[in-house]
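Researcher: We're teaching a course module on how sequence relates to structure. For the next exercise, students receive a sequence and then see the predicted structure as tokens, so they can try to spot secondary structure elements on their own. Here is the exercise chain.
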Amino acid sequence: MRILMIGAGGVGDAAAKIAVSRDFFEVFVVADYDVERARRTVAHAVSRRPGEQRFHALAVDASDVDQVAALIRLTGATHVLNAVDPRFVMPIFEGALAAGANYLDMAMSLSRPHPERPYAEPGVKLGDLQFHRAPEWEAAGRLALVGIGVEPGLSDVFARYAADHLFSSIEELGTRDGANLAFIRPDGTEGFAPGFSMWTIIEECLNPPVVWEKSRAEAGGGDVEAGFFTLPPFSEPEVFDFPEGIGPVECVHVEHEEVLLMPRWLDAQRVTFKYGLGEQMISILKALNTLGLDSTEPIRIKGVDIAPRDLVAAALPDPATIGPQLQGKTCAGVLVTGTGKDGQPRRTYLYHVADNEVTMRDYDAQCVVWQTAINPIVALELLATGAWSGAGVLGPEAFDAAPFLELLAAEQPAGYGSPWGMEEK
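Model: And here is the predicted structure for the students to work with:
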């Protein structure tokens, strides 16, 4: 396996540090628009393993399909890992298909709200542009494994595991994400710094959230697509009690890929995603929306064209650099409600917790980006060994969950030494 990872931000940097200790690949190329950033990521990775020579740094413009395809051919990459933000999903996705490589990403192609009824009907949904190309990937015998970060990604793996091993029927697959992270300024006061791209946070939190219901799909003739509908942002708040000391966090509906992925492969009555944003983040997002600072349309400021959202993202600390100032844990998981294998009602939360103190100590990576980065590396190893295989555009729930969870939790060096948990609710 020859890996080309495009993107050397926080997630890409963490992915390289995780991958360097594994032996399943021959070459790992890190490419970024800023080649110096790619070189820093390579240097960080190789410093963790004496004699390491598989890592290389190159430059690429991820917005240019032809340039992406040319780089894949130049490097002989068999698998392309997309580690940049969702704006660049389609150029990298299309470049991989053109060059005959397999593809993985951690976020899917962007949505566009319904022009007339944005808070009732979906317009272009997350991933629609990729699923539209599925026949071409199948015909080429190549795999596009989409949404294989933590959420989406590990949460989808949990859902597949629950469907296969824990439940005879599922009422709801409800992804729930929460944290008790605090950003501490040098003077000891608490400040604001998002754990991942503010551009992406604005995109997914201010877009109309999507919910899927089987009854709607059945009323629409059994078509999965008929089961999707939308709500206003921040709808249906609930307090969810997260494990391992995180505690209760208010969660709200947010647009997310799990809702667009799980119904395609798993049988459930309802699929939802709720995110523990917290009062501060919700207030900030509402203010940005009110002021028009969430817009991606450039405006001219003193002779320079700049999108307000890009300005907001640039004004905040880089998520890749905030690790030393973060305290706390983040939790990703799925709450599964239904009937257990024993015929009794069951409500189980399958989850994974990352502690910032631990990820900084062991990987020099803050916990949010590390928890995202570990999952595509596990998936790549499963693809390399043949434990996972397939062609077309597939989500994580299309694959057997057990090998993934076993490899993730197994002690190093056999596995990744990152245990997951289950909690009956």
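Model: If you want an answer key for the exercise: The radius of gyration is 20 Å. The first strand starts at residue 2 and ends at 6.
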